[in-house]
């Protein structure tokens, strides 16, 4: 069992219909039929949405996504229509709200990996494959792969694991043409982003994208290339054969599984609130990732 430690009550705004509460985002629809996406400061780990928020997290995710969308627009269109606050929305929504096209979403997490770690490493250690793709012998945690690979996953409900699947399974689910289009777009976007990040001293180890269709056009949706959806490593500390330092929720994971929290992730008990020092260290990592990538100061 997992999910929300405490599921929040969505804020009601005149003229908006609340559609969905996700791990991080609240989804609404406006009277024009567009989606209104609001990124909260919620933090998830080990399939739980935690009771403690990370200040500014939702704004950092939103502003970093917008920065990346600008740099990827010639490769693939995105779903953003506007960043204006809907009338009557609370002031706290400023900087964390996107008005987006309503798309026919493809039910596949489009994951690109350039380095071996996480669930890819676990599969490789068992079978020398990732999502059915054969990889060379001798790779270790953090190894750079011979080339970026497309390793899709099925989308899971809140509290469930996304499940890695083969390319053939994606083709069976969504059709061969769409599967080929997803793979091509995923690897093109990953390769562009990886080069940009590398120029700023960051290794983009892997990332996941979501796509939808507007008519026959494939459109990049949700958020892109943030510490929530990507593994960013400081390039000057990259050293294969160990877990890499990371710009993400690693502080949170480490504290939850360490002795101080007193939490057993194998139990069905929800995780405890995070202490202030873990909240501050995690926020600092998100801010640092934003500043290193964009070259601007976080305000």
Describe this structure in words.
Keywords: ATP-binding, Ligase, Nucleotide-binding, Purine biosynthesis. InterPro entries: SAICAR_synt/ADE2_N, SAICAR_synth, SAICAR_synthetase_CS. It comes from Streptomyces mangrovisoli. One of its GO terms (biological process) is 'de novo' IMP biosynthetic process. Its EC number is 6.3.2.6. This protein is an alpha+beta fold and 299 residues long. It folds into two domains: 1-102, Phosphorylase Kinase, domain 1 (2-Layer Sandwich), CATH 3.30.200.20; 104-237, ATP-grasp fold, B domain (D-amino Acid Aminotransferase, Chain A, domain 1). The protein contains six helices and 18 strands. The strands form four sheets. Strands 9, 10, 13, 14, 15, 16, 17 and 18 form an eight-stranded antiparallel β-sheet that branches. A hairpin with a 2-residue loop joins strand 5 (44-45) and strand 6 (48-49). Helix 1 (57-72) packs parallel to helix 6. The longest helix has 23 residues, at 176-198. 36% of the residues are buried.
- Using the coordinates above, name the CATH class of the largest domain: Alpha Beta
Approximate helicity band: 25-40%
CATH architecture tag of the largest domain: 2-Layer Sandwich
Kindly report the name of the CATH homologous superfamily of the largest domain.
ATP-grasp fold, B domain
Order of helices and strands: EEEEEEHEEEEHEEEEEHHEEEHH
Pathway: Purine metabolism; IMP biosynthesis via de novo pathway; 5-amino-1-(5-phospho-D-ribosyl)imidazole-4-carboxamide from 5-amino-1-(5-phospho-D-ribosyl)imidazole-4-carboxylate: step 1/2
GO molecular function: ATP binding; phosphoribosylaminoimidazolesuccinocarboxamide synthase activity
GO cellular component, one term: cytoplasm
Family: Belongs to the SAICAR synthetase family.
């Amino acid at each position: 069992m997992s999910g929300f430690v405490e599921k929040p009550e969505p804020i009601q705004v005149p003229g908006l219909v609340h559609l969905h509460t996700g791990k991080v985002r609240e989804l609404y629809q406006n009277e024009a039929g567009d989606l209104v996406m609001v990124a909260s400061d919620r933090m998830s780990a080990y399939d739980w949405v935690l009771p403690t928020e990370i200040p500014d997290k939702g704004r950092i995710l939103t502003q970093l996504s917008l920065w990346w969308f600008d740099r990827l627009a010639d490769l693939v269109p995105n779903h953003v229509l506007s960043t204006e606050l809907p009338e009557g929305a609370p002031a706290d929504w400023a900087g964390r709200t996107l008005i987006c096209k309503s798309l026919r979403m493809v039910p596949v997490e489009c994951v690109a990996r350039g380095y071996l770690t996480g669930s890819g490493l676990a599969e490789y250690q068992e079978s020398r494959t990732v999502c059915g793709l054969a990889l060379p012998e001798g790779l270790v945690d953090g190894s750079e792969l011979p080339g970026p690979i497309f390793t899709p996953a099925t989308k899971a409900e809140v509290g469930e694991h996304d499940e890695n699947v083969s390319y053939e399974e994606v083709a069976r689910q969504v059709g061969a043409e769409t599967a080929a289009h997803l793979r091509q777009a995923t690897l093109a976007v990953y390769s562009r982003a990886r080069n940009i990040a590398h120029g700023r001293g960051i290794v983009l180890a892997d990332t996941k994208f979501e796509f939808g269709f507007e008519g026959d056009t494939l459109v990049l949706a949700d958020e892109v290339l943030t510490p929530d959806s990507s593994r960013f490593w400081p390039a000057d500390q990259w050293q294969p054969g160990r877990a890499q330092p990371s710009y993400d929720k690693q502080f949170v994971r480490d504290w939850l599984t360490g002795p101080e929290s007193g939490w057993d992730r194998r139990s069905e008990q929800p995780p405890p609130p995070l202490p202030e020092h873990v909240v501050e260290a995690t926020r600092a990592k998100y801010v640092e990732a934003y500043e290193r990538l964009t070259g601007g100061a976080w305000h």
